[in-house]
Design brief:
Length: 193
């Protein structure tokens, strides 16, 4: 029986060795698979982090850009409101000219227009009488209209069915672009191109 026992022991030892060899190979293979999976997971993790940083950077830039645009628009809106208020104040100041200033405006305006013979002039109701003296002093055969402008609003000239409007609001509208440029340069210390 001893030879049988020896044979059984040898088979058991061989089986153990084979089993240990298989387990060792499987452990190496499992370790390799785990190592590969860990590397893949780390790379995925790195990609996800990089993508998140990239997306966050783009989102940040987009938010900053949007806010800068909103702030720029608010500044432009505030500047335009300031300009409009100044132009409105200018019109109100012109509407409140005293008699001497109004007559000077009327005289300068009429003197600068050529070919006014036999034209009719509509003046401010408030200064109609004193305006007649200025008009008669220009020697252009001008006549003062029966119509008047309310609110002390400049004057108008009618000749051959053509009306030339020198009311303050029309003058401001005509020179609006130049006036806005001057206001921007003076008020905001900028050069408008």
């Amino acid at each position: 029986m001893s030879s049988l026992q020896s044979l059984i022991d040898k088979v058991i030892n061989d089986a153990k060795e084979t089993c240990d060899k298989i387990l060792s190979e499987n452990k190496i293979e499992c370790d390799k698979i785990i190592e590969d999976r860990v590397e893949e997971a780390e790379e995925k993790h790195k990609e996800i982090i990089e993508k998140a940083h990239s997306e966050a950077s783009v989102l940040y830039d987009k938010i900053i850009s949007g806010e800068e645009l909103r702030i720029r628009n608010e500044k432009l809106k505030a500047k335009q409101e300031s300009i409009n208020k100044i132009l409105k104040d200018l019109n109100n100041k012109l509407l409140n000219l005293n008699e001497k200033e109004y007559l000077q405006y009327l005289n300068n305006g009429l003197s600068s227009i050529d070919g006014l013979d036999n034209a009719e002039v509509i003046v401010a109701q408030k200064f109609k009488k004193s305006s007649e003296k200025v008009i008669n002093g220009l020697n252009n055969n001008l006549r003062i209209s029966k119509e008047t402008l309310k609110n002390n609003d400049g004057f108008m000239v009618i000749k051959d069915k053509v009306t030339m409007d020198f009311t303050f609001l029309k003058i401001i509208d005509f020179y609006k672009e130049s006036l806005e440029k001057i206001i921007v340069e003076q008020l905001f210390q900028e050069k408008k191109v």
